[in-house]
Amino acid sequence: MAKKIAKRSWAEPFKIKVVEPIKMTTIENREKAIKNAGYNTFLLKSEDVYIDLLTDSGTNAMSDRQWSGMMIGDEAYAGSKNFYYLWKNIKKYYGMPYFVPTHQGRAAEHMISQILIKEGDYVPGNMYFTTTKLHQELAGGTFVDVIIDEAHDTASEHSFKGNIDLKKLKDLIKKVSAKKIAYVSMAGPVNMAGGQPFSMANLKAVQKLCKENKIKLWFDATRAVENAYFIKVRERGYAKKSIAEILKEMMSYFEGMWVSAKKDLMVNIGGIFATRNKKVFEAVRNMVVVYEGLHTYGGLAGRDMEAMAVGIEEMVEYDNIRARIGQIEYFGHQLDKYSVPYIKPIGGHAIFLDAKKILSHISQDNFPAQTLASEIYIDSGVRGMERGIVSAGRNSKTGKHNYPKLELVRLTFPRRVYTQAHIDVAVESIASVYQNRRKIKGLKMIYEPEYLRFFQGRFEKL
User: Is 130 a known active-site residue?
Assistant: First the structure.
């Protein structure tokens, strides 16, 4: 009797039309390359990388529709037709009436921080992100983490570890007063927490609390579609709603947003500032001319805006986002076979290895996550990145290291780029490093830039 098929397999909702060769290197090549890079994977040359899981920012594969759109770029300095197509889709899918393009997300972060934050203000949020926090501090603000405690527990299976803790937020309002809070900042899924989403119920409760205290609620919507997907599959009442419907509802609770279009929109460059607050829009539109370019191109070519507009239409297609998250889930389930510790439940855009558990014999002062990322690269040419004490930087008042509870290596999958065979190679490499972890020693920092040291810092082996 033939065996009954219990579960049907699924494949990526695309086929490969163009290929880019990648170079396989020897372990001797990689040891030399990482040493020359100061054991910082950001400083490696891409030609020395086999499978690049450093980031999904601008590293995605664009569709045939996006590439064809690049051919009809209107490169007029003012009033490009591509700008108006993009604006139309931002109103349609995000529900935000006012829009300014920027060359990437951190430009929008900079402008909103300069406009909304006054010296001495506080900006509560569901865990920090590196560039966002720095822009808030440079504007005179103080970031306050009000994420739920489960977000700092790598083993917690909480479905929405990106939720804001309402009690923490209420306590902050009571302590500093609502007038001293520039705005509440939410992100989802939360990058530094392991790609963990927030729930719609939590968002509604946060918005209600903000409204009662006349505090504005803003959104880092860079990976909002991933968050919408998790709401669909994890939160009661949303299973039958489309990704576009869930996204539109999420956005309805925010006054405005900033977006790095290099993620959800699957393009190589671009950013978005959008809001329903006309006064803030006018301020940003005035500022963008100084820092980015005219308000109808914001540092982008017309062809880039065309690709972004098409990307918005494609990003809400269920098969696209299901396949994107499906790759990450496959990666995690394969790691489970080797008992490699990583953040659970599996979140969006990346697997986050728990370097504190994997290299428990290495002190946090000797940078276990930075060490682990280097060792994985040496083993196989797979490039990930550190998300721990190096990324957390130093306390601006004491000058001492910030010591985050999470010490992680992020392995981020670009959209529509790699196959499951690439995942298998990465998994086997990580498993090998994990099995030989006791032989690994830590690092010491030998060069540290003033800001965002994880990008340019250099290390050497102990």
Answer: yes
Burial classification of residue 249, based on how many CB atoms lie within 10 Å of its CB (0-12 exposed, 13-18 middle, 19 or more buried): middle
* 94 annotated active-site: no
Is 129 in the active site? yes
Catalytic residue, candidates 106, 262, 263, 453: 263
Q: What's the one-letter identity of residue 222?
A: T
- The whole-number pLDDT of residue 341 equals 97
pLDDT value at residue 3:
66
Catalytic site residue from 77, 318, 338, 451: 77
Active-site residue, from 48, 56, 220, 354:
220
263 carries an active-site annotation: yes
- Which residue out of 198, 230, 454, 459 is catalytically annotated? 454
- Which residues face 84 on adjacent strands? none
What is the structure's pLDDT at 397? 83
Question: Which pLDDT belongs to residue 84?
Answer: 98
**Which of 93, 129, 297, 434 is flagged as catalytic?**
129
Query: How does DSSP classify residue 342?
Result: B
pLDDT attached to residue 128: 85
Active site residue 220: yes
Q: What pLDDT does 72 receive?
A: 95
Which of 331, 368, 381, 343 shows the shortest CA–CA distance to 158?
343
> Which listed residue (387, 410, 416, 453) is catalytic?
387
pLDDT tens for residues 48-76? 999 999 999 999 999 999 999 999 999 99
The Cα 250–Cα 278 span in angstroms is 20
- Annotated catalytic residue, options 41, 55, 59, 130: 130
Give pLDDT, residue 440: 97
For residue 63, what pLDDT is reported?
A: 96
- What domains does the chain contain, in order, with CATH numbers? 27-56+318-461 (3.90.1150.10), 64-315 (3.40.640.10)
- CA–CA–CA angle 120, 214, 111 (5° rounding): 50
**DSSP-H helix ranges across 37-63:** none
The number of beta carbons lying within 10 Å of the beta carbon of residue 19 is 6
- Annotation says 367 is catalytic: no
Say if strands 458-461 and 443-447 run parallel, antiparallel, or are unpaired.
antiparallel
Give yes or no for a cis peptide into 101 (omega within 30° of 0): no
**Measured distance CA(117)–CA(278) in Å, rounded:** 17
pLDDT the model gives residue 1? 60
Give the residue among 249, 246, 384 at the shortest CA–CA distance from 315: 246
Low-confidence stretches of the chain (pLDDT beneath 70):
1-6
Taking the model in full, what pTM does it have? 0.94
